[in-house]
Amino acid sequence: MTLAPERHSSRERPSAATGTAAAGQARAPTRVGAYPWAMAGAVALSVAGAALSLNGVLRGWAWYLPVLTTVMVVCFSIATLRALRAHPLLVAAGGFGSLIAILTLTFFRSTAIVGFIPSGATFTEVGKFIRRASETVLAESAPVAPNAGIVMVTCTALGLTVILIDALAVPLGMPATTGLGLLAILVVPATVKPQSVGFWGFSATVAGYLLILAGAQWFAPDSRTSADSGRNPGHVRRAMLTGIVALVATLAVPLAIPGFDHGTFPQGSRVNPWGAGTGLNPMITLGNSLRTPAGSGRITYATNSATPVYLRSVTVDNFDGDSWGPDDRDAERRPVAGQIEAGYEISAEEQVRQVTAVDTGSFTSPYLPLPYAPESIRGLNGAWTLDPATLAVKGSNTNSRAQQYLVVSSMPKITATALQQSSPAVRGISADFTRVPGNVPDIVRSTADAVTASSTTEYAKAMAIQKYLRSGEFTYSLQSPVQGGYDGNGLSVLADFLTQKSGYCIHYSSAMAVMARLEGIPSRIAVGYAPGRATGSTVSVAGQGALPEYEVDARDAHAWPELYFQGLGWVPFEPTPSRGVVPAYSTEAATPGAPGLFDGNGDLLPGAQGPIPTPGASAAPLPGAGSGANDPWQQLIPWLLGAGGAVALVLLMASPRLVRLRRRARRLRSQDPASEAAIPLAWSELRDLGTDYGLPPLSSETPRTYSARLRRSVLLGGAGGMDEAAHQAVRTLTSDFERRHYGRPVPDAAGGATTEPVDSRITAVRESLRNNAPLPRRFRASWLPASVLGRWARFLAAPVKGIRRLALPAANAAAHSWSRARDGLFRPRGNQ
Amino acid sequence: MDSHRRTAVNELTTPVRNFTDVSEQVSHLNGHKPPAMEAAAFHAASQRILESINTVIDGKSDAARLALTVLLAQGHLLLEDVPGVGKTLLAKTLARTIDCTVSRIQFTPDLLPSDVTGVSIYNQSSRLFEFRPGAVFANIVIGDEINRASAKTQSALLECMEEHQVTVDGDSYKLDEPFMVVATQNPIEMEGTYPLPEAQRDRFMARISMGYPDQDSEIEMLETHQATSPLAKVSPVVTAADVAAMIATVQQVYVSQAVKEYTVAVGRATRESPLLRLGASPRSLLQLLRAAKATAALDSRDFVLPDDVVGVAESVLAHRIILDRKAAGAGETPHSVIHGILSRLPVGQNPVDSTARSSATPAGLRRNH
Fold it and tell me: Within the 579-638 window of chain A, which residues sit less than 8 Å (CB to CB) from chain B?
């Protein structure tokens, strides 16, 4: 009661100065009660709570104090203005003003007038801050260091969110929609952070949101929704209950469903709105890049090479662990300067030297895309370091965005002959490239052995593996790894890939690299770009004249294996079907051109015999490979599965109907109205019939009132006409049931009951319902009877009800103590 | 005032004369229950009574039926409404329809308890104190404007109502059966009224508001009541013995377990409702069920349906419950609260859930509020 005048005034606040203020003038002319403060507190709690989840997007907690100050100041000024009954527009303007003042005070004190009024110089500062923030966003990977620019942008965004939420909740009177503003904050960590929002941020946001709703309900009840007091404790109880259930579900569901670390949304494939690879593992982002519908991160290059070149960013050589990634070897890196040595012995006489001019455009990555093997790089901005073992170039304080550079690269001329003659003894490279991981799945090992069983030289083995992977058995697919749950990398993924025989370049290249290592060939996976397309234009490069230009974008992202051959160095292979350019030395076409090359290895090239070189019965059969005899069956299997699925679908669709028909038959089995159970069963059947035709009995209805409602409804038609039989049947069933259920239990059960068999009465009712119901309702009653579906739904909901029953006392207790606390806190003392 | 007193005394002459006979009859009634009436005879008798009342009071058949229900359920009836809508007429008609003793007490602020119950007077000739029975010694007692009397006098009548006996100077005198008090009162906002306390309102089985008649009934009333009082034409259609037999019939009406559970659920729901400060007492549930039995009997049934309970619940419970302050402020009335409770309370018409209902009811209701 004490709050009644305050509620009144807050609801009619625009006219408060004239109307209600006069009424309350005698006691407290300016008092509007706790409403503005409660709402502002709730908004501050929700926004500050949501901001908690930004930890992880921004590093550490140093940024939180300015954020908290901003939110508090804006909320406080809004609440103050509202408590003074300012015009709503003035309240919003005050919110903006206080936001500008607190931002100025926090970030631009030196250039501002009196510390918090922005001056002209302040605006140039703001521009600098915003540029810095955008650089941070583009160049750094989460969590970013909280520099002044990004913190200022965060504070501004959160301050604006506060004003938005407050405007939605109070003057517009739509407190439920404030969730959108909060969601806008939570979306950022949810998409950027691998561990998503986090418990505390989420809980605090939910609590603040519920408080906003509760505050709006208590202090400004919506006259449309409830006629009684707006402070009905039921609202609190319901809100508490809903909140608790939602929170428990949110926390429990991810534990129960193992779907959030792989599958459609693996951690690595969170939305990355700023182009390709901002420092995340390139192995992981590669799949996403390939799946982007429109290519982004366009790179153009011009080369004097006869064929377009592969651009290599980084290599992966450590195959241990669950998830592979580039090993930066930070200790061994040295600055990129002058001539770059390949670092291994090259004995080939003929070197092919290429000049390539690269323009990275908007492509943003810490790694520099280069044609292999770079000898010198000119024109780079910033500091770049080189890993001598892999020749991968990485920015130490910069990234690849908007770089233009000229690369001279050289490779020995690689021919099949040279490869064939390469010595198996490997010298002069790091043991990193030869180490066989400990936990190779059996299928990888057995496949590798089976494929290379008849090959003797290193080159033949490599060719055998590539030939196996490029065979018709494997299909290139970006989607099937996602659907099959093995979209990622690592040895277990490899096992899945060899079983499913479908994947994309990551899978092919890692399969070849690992299998090569198992067979003793040093290997690594190169990640970068396939050659791409000619743009048709030319670029003039100093000293080279006009060179044809090519372009690549995210859709050309690629991975391929590099195998080490003594004397030739790292030789790229292309096991991925339909991607990239297969080097001449690794095509089958190369082999006929060099007759006698494979004289001793005739079965290396089985030609038309089949895709798998499995000579004789001695070789182990390849896992998953079907024999010819199974072919007709294999063709039949989809048909059988389809037919079985169709039958199952039909059965499933029909099952509510079947259950309903069976239930009716069982109920009406005993037709004699004199028998003990016939009438109650018939009454249940009548109720279910009504339910099926959209007239379910209410729990508070007596049999008589339900029967009357049934007879009044249009579905049973008018009494006296064609439907008289149905009316009569409903009447007699009702009176019989009343007598049976409420009457004196008499040994002569037939006493007073109608002697007509119950099933004919039920049939009469059903006929009338069918004749009068419109077609959709008739269909629903036949095929999706509400009585059956409702019972199933109740059955499924039983555990939820159990939880509710447990949670209810807890919620009641919480609501009780809360209302007591609220009464103590908010009731103005001495007023009335 | 004196004229009122005189009227009361005049009407009392008959019972005084028959006093000894009446007391014999009472003991006789207590010894042997009167035989129950046949269903057909019961129906005919009740129809006669209702038709007779309806000839006098136009357009109030519901009120007449409820008055008869209360009579057959051995309860007392409270008629509350503004002056001039026919409260007293209904009470008098009901009394006149039945061939039994009737007394009328006009309650005034100076009415004394002894006027109601009777008084012991010293007889000079016999030199003994003789008990002169008061106005309450009758089958049907009409208490007119009961809330105009002082609390003391009200209490004297209410003791008789509850115990069907009168105690004067240490001697108890049994009252005649059937015994029914039909009290009328003006709404408590009217001037010069002493509102009945809750405990005394609780003694009345049902409270009826007559309400204004509709247009046709009112026109008809103007015509028929023009020359003579229609009351004069009413002659008794049943005897007191008939009524006793009808009451015995009502007592034999069967109440199933399901209906008992439902009645208790109604009572519990009123006690748990946040809109009510005071819910229905156990005595009120007893009276509710009795009224339901009478309703069932008037409907020619020998068993009670939940519908019977629902039908009388508002009249039986509305004057006993007390609204919460907030609910009253929000415009709720006792009738609306009871209506709301009944429209939410599960009946359990499905024989399958009837066993589970009693445990599920309180929780279900609490959730609905």
Answer: none
